[in-house]
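Intended use. Records like the one below are meant for learning the mapping from a protein sequence to its folded structure. Do not use them to infer anything beyond what is encoded.
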Amino acid sequence: MRFGPVPSTAPRQGTVLLEVLLALALFVSAAAIVTSGMNASSDNLERQRLNTHAANLAATVLAEIQLGIRPTTEAGEQPFLPPFELWTSELVVSPTETESGEASGLLRVEVIIRHKEATLVRRLAQVIRIPDTSARTTF
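Structure written out for the chain above:
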């Protein structure tokens, strides 16, 4: 039989607990960094999607004006029909002049697209010649 001090395992158990806590802290901080990066990426993706959609709507409005489907006399913000009810369009029309100050027959049309929920405003301007609807013939 041996008589002497009993070996203690307490310091070894404390070291294991410290390692577990350190690993947990590192995991939590890494998860927080990855989560914030994914949130930022998701927000940027949504912003790009809305900007692209607004640019497409603005190009559509300009094409409708050039085809004579939409008049250039609309005043104020005009809502789009469903499924685009969260979007509005506004036209700013101004005639252009030649260098001598005479009317050129062209209009500068600026389309302003706004989203009702997101703080998004997209502008697209173009100088266009409006087709003369009185000269059209029907068959």
